[in-house]
């Protein structure tokens, strides 16, 4: 067995800094989103994904893939969102087993009310701290990692 390629001091500092930053940033953004808009991060993800489609609807399976959630987990979350009037589900006419998740007018109002504050928080806690060059580097880095992690990946995260 090959000897592990341990991180050197510089790599370890970068890795640990990234992990700490990610945890703190996720925590702060989630806290502000809940405090300011009464939405969880998954609520926001569902509503924003739906609001960005032309007909304000997505197949449940496609939404689950986008969120990297199992269909079952998403279905449970959507039930809670339905109870709050943010989304509805409609049967898929071409596939009796499939369903669409549809943004309701209340869901549209919720995402429109939440988005400005959320974008402000993303700016305050990350974007405005970076130079234009750092933003370019961050974009290149994140896309490279995402491409590597999704290459050849099955579409259902529950299967991975």
Automatic annotation (TrEMBL):
Molecular functions per Gene Ontology: DNA binding; DNA-binding transcription factor activity
PROSITE patterns: HTH_MARR_2
InterPro entries recorded: HTH_MarR-typ (IPR000835), MarR/SlyA-like (IPR039422), WH-like_DNA-bd_sf (IPR036388), WH_DNA-bd_sf (IPR036390)
Domain of life: Bacteria
Keyword Magnesium annotated: no
Keyword set, alphabetical order: DNA-binding
The UniProt record lists the keyword RNA-binding: no
Record domain HTH marR-type: where: 11-147
GO BP terms in the entry: response to stress
A Pfam match: MarR_2
Name listed for the protein in its UniProt record: DNA-binding transcriptional regulator, MarR family
Biological source species: Micromonospora viridifaciens
């Amino acid at each position: 067995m090959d000897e592990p390629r341990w991180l050197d001091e510089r790599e370890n500092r970068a890795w640990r800094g990234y992990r700490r930053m990610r945890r703190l940033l996720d925590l702060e953004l989630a806290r502000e989103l809940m405090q300011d808009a009464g939405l969880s991060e998954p609520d926001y993800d569902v509503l924003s994904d739906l609001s960005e489609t032309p007909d304000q609807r997505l197949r449940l399976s496609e939404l689950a893939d986008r969120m990297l959630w199992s269909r079952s987990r998403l279905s449970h979350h959507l039930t809670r969102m339905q109870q709050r009037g943010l989304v509805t589900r409609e049967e898929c006419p071409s596939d009796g087993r499939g369903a669409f998740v549809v943004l309701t007018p209340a869901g549209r109002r919720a995402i429109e009310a939440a988005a400005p504050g959320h974008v402000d928080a993303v700016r305050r806690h990350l974007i405005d701290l970076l130079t234009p060059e750092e933003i370019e580097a961050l974009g290149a880095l994140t896309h490279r990692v995402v491409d590597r992690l999704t290459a050849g990946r099955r579409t259902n995260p529950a299967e991975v």
